[in-house]
Amino acid sequence: MQAQPPRSSSSNRPRFFNERRGFPGAVHFHPDAPPPKITLIDYSRSEVKKVDINKPEECIPYLDSESVSWVDVSGLGDEQTWQQIKQVFNLHPLALEDIIHVPQRPHMQEYEEQLVLIARMVSLREDGRSVMTEQISLVLGKHYLLTVQEEPYYDCLGFVREQIQLGRSLIRKAGADYLLYTLIDAIIDGFYPILEMYGELIEDLEAEVVSVPTPQTLEEIYQIKRELLELRRAIWPQRDAINALIRDSSDLISQDVRTFLRDCYDHAVQVLDIVETYRELAASLTDVYLSSVSNRMNEVMKLLTIISSIFIPLTFIAGIYGMNFNTETSPFNMPELNWYWGYVATLAVMALIAIGMIIFFWRKGWFENFTGIRSDRRSSPKRKRK
Q1: pLDDT: is 329 or 233 the higher one?
Q2: What is the pTM of this model?
Q3: Which residue ranges make up each domain of the chain?
Q4: Helix ranges, 248-341 (H)
């Protein structure tokens, strides 16, 4: 059974779009969206603390301290809880609107005491064949960072949480702006495993469209093209948003962190280049598929022509001896019908004609492409993913 290309999250789990209606700043919540699940990680050079938050007001003591607080919120439901989050973090109405109304185009927006970054995050599920894409919102304050995800499923930020717990990187020694950089870097790096998977899939499809192209192959090519377009829509504006952070003059981001953000920008450009390359390869696969199907059709027509050419003289001979002229009326009316070896001789002549034509076509090289048809089907590439 041939493998299917990775499916995007829109075909694997329900999406809760909070529709934008009314005046700017108005927020509308989807009734079926999951309620927020809040986790707080507060850390400094010497210690780290992870707390499950039941009410947003419990975050206030941590936000006023000198330590760095990472508040991670998963879920866009429950209007009352979100109104409390808005008050605790003093979110601008437009910032809350961008957070709740998904999906948003990745961008960066500066407010009086905060920087709000809207980004797209991709991750590979545990099944290894489906890709989850979702919006992640990052709100940077002086000593805290608020991150908001659509749903409490999988993300690519586990490595950052692990590094904070172990204290082996610079995160524990730096401020909230460095945590922002670390998360952005993890989000960008999350594209690489996905692109590697698409690269392997395109290589398999390249071999398949040349050897054994099928309608299913063409369907998979178009599916990959659509999913690569979705990745392009995610990474293209994300690159511009990172560039805006670098050029921004806010005091919330230090000059050292801007240097690190330039590395993130370079990675985003590299991811975009890979996506564009894969899109061009996927587009060229369509032309290769059509050419391959046309060539195989020509080979089939050629084979049928050869078979017809062999049987034309045999049919001619059989047609002559099927006329049944009376041999007693004239000595010229098929005297072979009265021969003792007439039937055997006719079959022998027909066999010699057929063998002679086969040898003639073989020497012309017309059978060379037909000998590999069955072997191509045996050696057709097997997909790595089911």
Answers
A1: 233
A2: 0.74
A3: 9-290
A4: 255-320
